[in-house]
Amino acid sequence: MALNASASISPSSSSYPQLGSDDANCGLNLRYELHRCRNWKCCASLGVVAQRALTPVDDEKPTVPLVDSSLDSDASHHNHSQAFHKDVNLLPKPLTAIDVSSYPRDGSKVRVAYQGLPGAYSEDAALKAYPKCETVPCDEFEAAFKAVELWLVDKAVLPIENSVGGSIHRNYDLLLRHRLHIVGEVQLQVNHCLLGLPGVRKEELKAVVSHPQALAQCENILNDLGVVKIGSPDTAAAAKTVALECVRDTGAIASFRAAKIYGLDVLAERIQDDDVNITRFLILARDPIIPGTDRPYKTSIVFSLEEGPGVLFKALAVFSMRNINLSKIESRPLKQRPLRVVDDSNEGSAKYFDYLFYIDFEASMADPRSQYALGHLQEFARFLRVLGCYPMDTVV
After folding, report:
1. Does residue 276 sit within a domain?
2. What is the pLDDT of residue 84?
3. What EC number(s) would the UniProt record show (predicted)?
């Protein structure tokens, strides 16, 4: 009898499901064979065969035993089903479109990196983009890039240009060096404040500490005061230095929020020479966002061109032909081969730079015009990369 029972579940038996058959039928047939063999009083011999057939590898061991020999067939099937459904209910549920759309836009679940110390203008920009975010200071721009890449933070907010000081070239170069995506922009109105220790008047100051850009943007008032200008890595660091050293005749140029953080008095507000002083920041993330057409979008690209007369004109014309406005053009030397000799003669001295061109244009990648323009641009470009497509910040 034992030999017959073993033969009934052998791979050669027509009653046993073959490889490639339906998994559900396989489980039903196997359960039926086990039930039939128990009725034949041959569980001892069958148990050895079934154990070999049903023993999974370590990574695939189920949490619930497939066969419980201590219970009869019906009870085993009933308890197995209960445990199986209980485990499934404990699994995390997939997100729905409603869950994604309800994600808080105030940044309450977002960690945002910025360059500088608490109170820096970059932190103000991060809080403008995500009012309830957790800000993470970084000692330099590249550290903020790496913090996003290493999943230490969700996003980074970094300055890219100032209406008075111009472009921040270091961040243009880092955009190409790192594989992050631009997912937004922030325009921040700069309010340079003259800060000092409590009780100090601005006329008492003999020196002022701040970032070189801030010192240059407030040159008129500093010249009127006749103070010595001292450079600092950033404006917030200047405020912190004044607070820690407690030198009454030394002030700082920093933000209004920096004064609150470091316990300094605001001796004067809006001391910049140009009233319209706006810094534009980029929001960087590991993944791009899905572009839309529901509001104004901006797309940032970088490319290099083949050699030839009028090639740059042709490259820019692909946008003009489709009525796409260019809001920013920046060129940077291609550092892999910065100089090229015009002729093959060793006597030739005329040289010029190979350039990368960074362009921001006001159109979404979801707009067919953008797709046609970039397709046309590829005819002239040696290299082309889309840095990001993101909603424009229209509120300063």
Report:
1. no
2. 42
3. 4.2.1.91
